[in-house]
């Protein structure tokens, strides 16, 4: 039995012909409702997944643009990767200071400010233990990073590392999982 909404509609249309008036509790009406609900559920799950993956795509996109700007320098050192990580971590500092300056004295922080602070603290914690980035010290991987098409499906071919604040470098996996 088809589960996709379009397939269910097509099958019912073939069965009933041009007159598609259905009784409210008929089998076909129930199949249509189930297929519609399934379609809505799958759309919500896809949207939630895309929203959860967005920070990783933005992060890798930043490092891709940094690699393309440093065209002639070749592979990156740990120090240069740490400098890029710190630049990336400071990207929201101006926005946070603007939100804080606009808040009247004595007022609680806004939701946007709280979300921004939480994200900054989370990324700082991740940097202390090892920040997940593409391996920019490998020449072959750097070439693949420069040619990345900014799609999640293209990230599987890249190698990843975790760079910690103290300069340690650990090989990591894709997709990022905890302290992989």
Could you describe the 3D structure shown?
This protein is mainly α. The protein is 58% helix and 7% strand. It contains six helices and three strands; from the N terminus they run αααααβαββ. It has a three-stranded antiparallel beta sheet with strand order 1-2-3. The mean pLDDT is 86.
Give a quick summary of the entry.
With 180 residues, the protein is mainly alpha-helical. It has helices spanning 5-16, 27-69, 78-89, 93-102, 111-129, 139-146, and strands at 131-134, 160-163, 169-172.
Overall spatial form: flat
* Estimated share of beta-strand residues: 5-15%
- Number of β-strand runs: 3
Indicate the mean pLDDT. Answer: 86
Global Rg:
24 Å
Instruction: Work out the helix count.
Output: 6
| Oligomeric state | single chain
Span of the ends, CA to CA: 41 Å
Helix content range: 55-70%
Query: Main sheet: which strands, in order across?
Result: 1-2-3
Task: Indicate the structural class.
Answer: mainly alpha
* Helix and strand run: HHHHHEHEE
Ranges with pLDDT <50 over ≥5 residues?
Answer: none
Largest sheet: 3 strands, antiparallel
